[in-house]
Amino acid sequence: MKKITIVGCGSTGHALAALLAQKGHEVCLTDSSAYADMLNESARIGTIRLAGFARGEGTPARITGDVAGAVGAAELIICCTISNRDEEVARMIAPYLDESKSVLIGAGNCGSLVYRRVFDACGRSGVLLGEVGGNFFPCRLSEDRTATIGLPLGPKAIAAFPPRDTPRLAEAFREVWEFTPAKSILLAAFNGPNLITHPAGAVLNAAAIENSGGAFNLFQDGVSPGFIRLVDRLWEEKRSVFEALGFTPAPSPRKMFEGILDEHDETYRYFRQMGGPGSLDHRYITEDIPLLICMFISVARAAGVAVPLYESMVNLLSAVTGDDFYARGRTLENLGMGGLSREEVLARFCG
Q1: What separation in angstroms does the CA of 59 have from each of 12, 29, 115, 342?
Q2: What is the spatial distance between Cα 77 and Cα 16, in angstroms, rounded to a whole number?
Q3: Which Pfam families match (predicted)?
Q4: Do both 117 and 78 map to the same domain?
């Protein structure tokens, strides 16, 4: 049994807290004071019910806004927060860390770079740190604290930063999940479907999203044969970047979207019900475009590989939203690593 603190009281945080409590771990769910109402209501209800591809219920040992106490008492800290909060959350937990604790970022997206910079500045360089390849699972949380998980649970990639720490990180979290060590946080971040799925869905459906009044459902309203053809082209660009870096890409998400279109395919029964993006402020756009897609483009440029479709999607969505995503995004340039060659990227990120 591990003492685990989950930082982040959204859908993923609640669902993961329930799953790990089911497994017998001592789980604490916490977040900043901005989420006090959410935490207080969850504490009042106490038990989190699971639906979809997980069943039953789990009761965290504590649900609290006392971040200092929650992090201080934990062996393992899992941060299940939107990547836009990475700097905030890293600063929030850093004072309560020491070398006996290990930190895992649940959303991935190369957030380890941000956390590591903050930890180093706070004198916490010895804290073991890394990230999961994308979110643990797609999930939605209802007001009665039922967490519906949209796809079957399965192994997840895990990578540390610096990369030499990956074996230690995988061992530290061995009892938490079935993790597969990845050679780099770049491989972990870029090998999930969100790199392709969310920008394609946002670009092709921007007007429908904006006019939906919050009711748009990408996986019911926005998938078509043309969408799948774009998915394939984006995957081809991704494959070219992976080949330049010596990575092996996951298969194209084509099969997943063919299954979504097939109403008889029960694998996607719950996934089809997961709404969003209901506006152009949704995290599929405001998180994934600046923090995942822009990072991918900057790495592609360093590797000397053209990715015109990805660049076009960022330019189009920047124009539609009025937000220059690449200028403010998570990129090698904005992280102080502009001008790296392919060899230097591999040395920095793969050890």
Answers
A1: 15, 10, 29, 47
A2: 12
A3: ApbA, Octopine_DH
A4: yes
Residue 107 has pLDDT above 90, yes or no: no
- Secondary structure string (H, E, C) spanning the chain: CCEEEEECCCHHHHHHHHHHHHCCCEEEEECCHHHHHHHHHHHHHCCEEEEECCCEEECCCEEECCHHHHHHCCCEEEECCCHHHHHHHHHHHHHHCCCCCEEEECCCCCCHHHHHHHHHHCCCCCCEEEEECCCCCCEEECCCCEEEECCCCCCEEEEECCHHHHHHHHHHCCCCCCEEECCCHHHHHHCCCHHHHHHHHHHHCHHHHHCCCCCCEHHHHCCCHHHHHHHHHHHHHHHHHHHHHCCCCCCCCHHHHHHHHCCCCHHHCCHHHCCECCCCCCHHHHCHHHHHHHHHHHHHHHHCCCCHHHHHHHHHHHHHHCCCHHHHCCCCCCCCCCCCCHHHHHHHHHC
Of the three residues 150, 170, 190, the one that is the final residue of a domain is 190
- 346 in the same domain as 218: yes
Domain encompassing residue 251: 194-350
Q: Say whether both 160 and 41 belong to one domain.
A: yes
Counting the structural domains of the chain, the total is 2
Are 181 and 271 members of one domain?
no
Which tens digits make up the pLDDT trace of 19-61? 999 999 999 999 999 999 999 999 999 999 999 999 999 999 9
CA dist., res. 180 & res. 170, Å (int): 8
- 69 shares a domain with 28: yes
Per-residue confidence (pLDDT) for residue 100, from 0 to 100 = 96
